[in-house]
Design goal:
Layout: E1 3-5, E2 12-14, E3 43-47, E4 54-58, H1 62-65, E5 71-75, E6 77-79, E7 83-88, E8 94-104, E9 107-113, E10 123-126, E11 131-138, E12 144-150, H2 154-161, E13 187-190, H3 202-210, E14 214-220, E15 243-247, H4 249-260, E16 265-268, H5 270-279, E17 289-293, E18 308-312, H6 319-328, H7 330-342, E19 353-356
Parallel strand pairs: 3-19, 5-14, 5-16, 6-13, 16-18
Antiparallel strand pairs: 1-2, 3-4, 7-8, 7-10, 8-9, 9-12, 10-11, 11-12, 14-15, 15-17, 18-19
Length: 357
């Protein structure tokens, strides 16, 4: 195996452990800016990770690759309209606050812009003045702890004044905010959608069930760390963001029974994958419960609970392409992505999907 030299430390870094090893060329026009009218009509690239064989179809073709007794694991988190645009009290300057994580009833960890000017004590007002905010302190990584002031129910105020926090690579305005939710979204708390699930319709899920395929739900509230680039040369030095998850007892039991009966656990999205892998012990048994996870999956990781993965196409040099590479092999994934570019697949959140088995 060829090694690279880390530019910061001078030590040898094995191939696959360097962030640049996960780069690929992506033409800007292949980044999907809008969701398709029919969720399930997106394209589907099917990859056999053992043989490297690739086939192409539409998302509805996923039914051909599912088998009776398999279990699909879906992340039922719901995206909140976490982007607040307002004015700074006193100066009237425009500001933006992005809710990341609720710490207590009215205090949230937030991303703020412009960060340099929003110091502790700064105040902001939103919309008609029914929502106000005060910066309490600077948190680790430059985020802010923000206390909100309002009358009534915070979620209702947020629903009225907030916008969907679309990833930075989507520049078009979203016409229907439900298109950045899965059809099974249930528990509010995410700053980003578990996008692999956006391809499913109620009808398609009904067909899945009719085939004798089980469906289990987990919850992982997706943080914006998902979109943050890896800024270190050596992958092992990257500090992963933390996200809250819950595995209900019935889902843990379903996953364990599926494996016991010799069938596959298929995760819909990297968030479902990170959840079941966080909840699995060394022997692959998945345990019910809630916790925070900062699991970082990259090549060399041994999967304990997931047997196949439905996922979108991810950003170059991101933790998500590293996860998929851990499952299917880095060279295989980069080769597959190159083919997807050649065949003009649509990339990222509103883009097309892959089934890796």
């Amino acid at each position: 195996m060829t090694n690279h030299s880390d530019t910061n430390t001078g030590r040898e870094v094995p191939v696959g452990h360097r962030t640049a090893d996960y780069y690929y060329d992506l033409p800007q026009e292949l980044i999907a800016q809008d969701p398709l009218q029919d969720r399930s009509s997106s394209r589907l690239l099917i990859l056999n990770r053992r043989t490297g064989q690739r086939t192409h179809g539409t998302f509805r073709d996923i039914l051909k690759y599912l088998e009776r007794g398999d279990t699909l694991i879906l992340n039922d988190t719901k995206v909140i309209p976490a982007r607040l645009l307002g004015l700074r009290e006193g100066t009237g300057a425009s500001i933006e606050i992005l809710l990341l994580k609720r710490l207590e009833k009215d205090v949230w960890e937030c991303l703020v812009r412009p960060g340099k000017k929003l110091r502790p004590g700064a105040r902001a007002v939103f919309g008609d003045g029914s929502l106000k905010a005060e910066i309490l302190e600077i948190a680790e990584g430059g985020n802010r702890l923000v206390r909100f002031e309002y009358e009534g129910i915070f979620e209702e105020v947020l629903d009225r004044l907030g916008e969907m926090p679309l990833p930075p690579y989507i520049t078009h305005r979203l016409q229907d905010r439900n298109r950045y939710q899965t059809v099974y979204a249930k528990y509010e708390g995410s700053a980003a959608a578990p996008t692999a699930g956006l391809h499913f319709t109620p009808e398609l899920l009904g067909e899945v069930r009719d085939m004798g395929v089980n469906i289990g739900f987990v919850t992982l509230h997706v943080g914006l760390g998902t979109f943050r680039p890896v800024k270190v040369d050596d992958v092992e030095e990257h500090v992963m963001h933390t996200e809250w998850y819950n595995v209900p007892p019935e889902t843990a039991e379903l996953i364990n029974r599926t494996h016991k009966e010799g069938h596959r656990v298929i995760c819909v999205g990297t968030t479902s994958c990170r959840t079941v892998e966080s909840a699995a012990d060394e022997d692959g048994a998945v345990h019910a419960g809630s916790d925070d996870t900062s699991i970082f999956i990259y090549p060399g990781y041994r999967f304990r609970a997931m047997d196949a993965l439905i996922t979108n196409f991810h950003l170059p040099e991101s933790t998500l392409i590293m996860l998929v590479s851990a499952f299917a092999g880095r060279e295989t994934i980069l080769e597959t992505y190159r083919e997807a570019v050649d065949k003009r697949y649509r990339f990222f959140s509103f883009g097309d999907a892959m089934f890796v088995y």
